UniProtKB/TrEMBL annotation:
It comes from Coprobacter secundus subsp. similis. This is UDP-glucose 4-epimerase. It holds the Pfam family GDP_Man_Dehyd. Keywords: Carbohydrate metabolism, Isomerase, NAD. It comes from the Bacteria. One of its GO terms (biological process) is galactose metabolic process.
């Protein structure tokens, strides 16, 4: 084993896929999750894929005493990947205090206890929302941080500043901040995928649930943006490609290859895809029609953003490899598996 890694929010969508990739790379994983937007059954899926069942601790990361107990019971944690956060733009506008409390306190608790327990590295799950509506596309890491367009986006900006200030103070650990664009798809085995509790806040689960007949109709928020078809443009990245970047980041820090104490990388494909284009590509990849309607714009949405991933390609030796068609097909395969299991 290479070492022990704590994955917070590890039963969630990106966390579960990253746990699989960590185990495949030889790391021992401890999964922490409060199951507020995930399901403990995901641990079974991880075990089915890798043959290894990660340790699982159900707890709320806002509880610092419980976190201390976790470190005591799982000694020797060398690195942390922090996915524990509320993440829906629209919901954050409606419930800002929930987002500030959950996303900031959880990070601060981790940073506070890391030196005490000899944790050497933390990967932070950030977002392209920190760039707001960029002046220049595609967006590289030197793009200015714009005023956030939602409380969710603001929490990511603040968390990045907290990490930088903490490390500048001289603590004995390093950090890599990964700014994701839009993760989609599922593991090719269809053992794990995106399974939000309740009504999906992200586009693709709503697409697949509408295609399956679970949702009556998909709402496309706006067709009057300054884009070729009027709908918002995003950079959609395969979740397994994204997960692999976290393993590389952990390897980099624990292997002493970091060039700075805090490093930042954009993770995307470098290609912008509109909401309507995504729906059309899904229909082409699966042969299933999606019932959708155009509605008004949604507060907090950015018009268009996609990545310049060259820095991550060059410095990390990482790149997004899966095609959009294959990624959308994997999401549909996952939705079909949920139906087979009687889950959804």
């Amino acid at each position: 084993m290479k070492g022990k890694i704590l994955v917070t929010g590890g039963a969630g969508y990106i966390g579960s896929h990253t746990t699989v990739e960590l185990q495949n790379a030889g790391y021992e994983v401890v999964v922490l999750d409060n199951l507020s937007n995930s399901n403990a059954g995901v641990i079974d899926g991880i075990e089915h894929i890798t043959g290894i069942r990660p340790a699982f601790v159900q707890m709320d990361l806002q509880d610092k005493d419980a976190l201390r107990k976790l470190f005591e019971e799982h000694k020797g944690i060398k690195g942390i990947i922090n996915f524990a956060a509320s993440k829906a733009v629209g919901e954050s506008v409606q419930k800002p205090l929930l987002y500030y409390r959950n996303n900031l306190v959880t990070l601060m608790n981790l940073l506070d206890l890391m030196p005490e327990y000899g944790v050497e590295a933390i990967v932070f799950s950030s977002s392209c929302t920190v760039y707001g509506q960029p002046d220049i596309l595609p967006v590289d890491e030197k793009a200015p941080i714009k005023p956030a367009m939602s409380p969710y986006g603001n929490t990511k900006q603040i968390c990045e500043e907290i990490i930088k200030d903490t490390i500048y103070s001289g603590v004995p650990f390093k950090s890599i901040i990964l700014r994701y664009f839009n993760p989609i798809g599922a593991h090719p085995t269809a053992e794990i995928g995106e399974l939000p509790l309740g009504v999906p806040q992200n586009l693709l689960p709503y697409v697949t649930q509408t295609a399956m007949g679970i949702r009556e109709q998909l709402s496309v928020f706006g067709d009057d943006y300054n884009t070729p078809d009027g709908s918002c443009i995003r950079d959609y990245i395969n979740v397994v490609d994204l997960a692999k970047a976290h393993v590389i980041a952990v390897d980099r820090m624990l292997g002493g290859k970091s060039k700075q104490d805090v490093e930042i990388f954009n993770l995307g494909t470098g290609k912008g895809v509109s909401v309507l284009e995504l729906i059309q590509t899904f229909e082409k990849a699966t042969g299933v029609k999606v019932n959708y309607k155009i509605v008004g714009r949604r507060e907090g949405d950015i018009e268009k953003v996609w990545a310049n991933p060259e820095w991550a390609n060059k410095e990390l030796g990482w790149e997004a490899k899966e095609t959009l068609e294959d990624t959308l097909a994997s999401a549909w395969k996952w939705q079909q598996k949920l139906r087979e299991r009687g889950i959804m």
